[in-house]
Amino acid sequence: MQTAGAMTFDSPPSHPKLWLDAVNEWFTTVDHKRIGMLYIGYALVFLLIAGLEAAVMRIQLAVPNNHFVSPQVFNRMFTMHGTTMVFFVGMPILFGFGNYLVPLMIGARDMAFPRLNAFSFWISAFGGLLLYFSFIGGYGLYGAGTAPDVGWFAYAPLTAKLFSPGHSTDYWILAVFLSGIGSVGTALNIVTTIVCMRCKGMTMARMPLLPWLYLVTSAMVFIAIGPLTAAQMMLGIDRFLGAHFFDVQAGGSAVLWMHFFWIFGHPEVYILVLPAFAFANEIIPVFSRKPIFGYSAMVGATVLIGFISLGVWAHHMFTVGLGPAGNTFFTLATMIISVPTGIKIFNWLATLWGGKIRFATPMIFSIAFLFQFLIAGLTGIMLSAAPFDWQLGNSYFVVAHFHFVLVGAILYMIFAAFYYWFPKMSGRMLSETLGKWHFWLFTIGFHLTFDFMHVPGLMGMPRRIYTYEADRGWAVWNMIESIGMIFQAAAILIFVWNVVRSYRHGEEAGPDPWDAWTLEWSTASPPPHYNFAEEPVVHSRRPLWDLKHPQAPDSDYE
Amino acid sequence: MSAYTAVLTQSTDEWQLPDKGKVGMICLIVAEAAIFIIFVLAYIFYLGKSLSGPTPAEVLKLPVLGTVCLLSSSLTVHFAVAALERNEAPLSSLWLALTVLLGGIFLADTAVEWHELIYEHGLTIRTNLFGTTFYSLVGLHASHVIVGLGMLSLVLLFAVAGKLNSSHAHRLHVLSYYWHFVDAVWVVVFIVVYVLGR
After folding, report:
1. Domain that holds residue A220
2. Which of A93, A146, A300, B41 is deepest in the core (most CB within 10 A)?
3. Is residue A308 part of a domain?
4. The pTM is what?
5. How far is B105 from chain A (nearest CA, A)?
6. The complex's ipTM?
7. Domain total for chain A?
8. Which residues in chain A are closer than 8 Å to B123, comparing Cβ atoms?
9. Does the pLDDT value for residue A143 go beyond 50?
10. Is A2 within 8 Å of B3 when comparing Cβ atoms?
11. Which residue in chain B has the smallest CA separation from A224?
């Protein structure tokens, strides 16, 4: 393969390093690849912690009238699980992949602002530490601590000083606030990198879809994180200075917090899912041996999703009572957003159609993603109808729906991305055998837990309850869900083992193990710190295809 | 590799992309604008909803001096950038000094206003919803003025030390974007708080 030649001058000189030197290098690095890996590693640690919190909840709910944990601990568990998963797993892992991949895919040597990049990571990391420090510092000087217990969307007036004494809620505010600053910093960096640092010949229309989707996601971060930051400031001002933003007694409005939070909260869902789509856009074509179907439709649909997602937030608030005009608007907006999403699903199917499909681990995760995301979308359309939502709002049906999105779609694509890009990051392949075990165990566990979670939801089981009576008919379903959790935990352990083992003993990957087409595969694995010895020039969307097939390059047809 | 180099050398077309500093600053401004929009919305939403006095109509006066100073500082910073681009560093530092002075007058004007509100009218952030939203919105803007003034003063310090030259014009240009943004926010705050909200 022509690209193998890149190895000769790209491999850095290797000499043994002092342990402390290595630590120092990681702490002070401004290299986008290392920061990307820091983001990913940090997110994986929090994934395990938040997964453990989910396991505690599943054990507690497995049988009726259980006393595994107290109601107070249960409240802390669902608050920490949600907050951690969204702000300290989802955001960092997606920014991690973005940091690592965007400069490589657009043929740049680093991000636009490397030091800002390091700052953004460390400020987010500090936020995560602060959140977990609340376990010991939540009561401030009054002794032992406690974690936040106000739910991940922290509705007013529960968050008022009167109802949430101590400092646990303050830790939550600060942690989320800091994570927001980090997110804006990284998003700013990604946008600037994509707009200003594409290699020669890479017009916007020739850019791979992953940077395109990261561009839209990052633009959404600016608009969505702002309201969150503002709301956290207001809540902080309320709690520390005695102001009245969300103080109902002084004429303040609890509903205003809901609006502010969900103006952030719903675009956030799309901020998290667009990178997952981005991974699918890269992985599905490579393993179907076909270029992506409908490139421009994909870009258009992404931009549309970005716009429409800013106008659907109040579908989280149907049960509050918005009046007929509000209900109609948000029902329609929510239903319309499924159109560009549907376009994407059809494009992926059309990419698979007639392709020479290779069922490697990244691909099987991607195919499961297609099925599961479809189901998540269908229950989403059900919930978008206001009257239906009145019936099922705040029930386990909603919990099942959004876990289908967050786990069934986003986490599956994160796993796929891991199996796909781990060889690039480490120079070694992850084990396919362990990968298949990981996939099947996780899929069985996922469907046991979340398919059956719809049922007690339909039967009226509300979310956030710490236990329930035996005569409700929810017990069987909850037991099945908890059994599914065991399968998922086993699968995650296999995944961790796979990563640890393959990092040391995995098969050598070489620069281009998947016979792929984008620029990151044209350099060594792992890439040297300058990425490309010579800055690449591209003539089509698949520069490596052109390189490998000079007799029929894409540039002749695009 | 050889094939790759062949591809590399083919293109000699112009390849111009936008400037990193400006794009980055515009991104920051968009993100900051989103924060301000929420504070402005909260202010508008709570207009007239305070359960007790004082009300905006009773205590707020038009901050004419501060507004004139802040808005004209946008002009002076623009002249500072233009002078530096023409490599006239002394003139540029003069305009910079004037900008910092005007920004300082604005802050002093705000301080006088707040002092009067707190000590004569008894309006604090805890008094009522008007106090809560007023001090938060105006304070958020003032804190941005302080950050901008800090950065401009830093440039001025370099200028006084004789370290400022036309190679820094681009950075000063990016910084001036931020200052113009702070000014534009004040126009919105002024209209919402002092004109429509009174």
Report:
1. 34-556
2. A93
3. yes
4. 0.93
5. 27
6. 0.92
7. 1
8. none
9. no
10. yes
11. B34
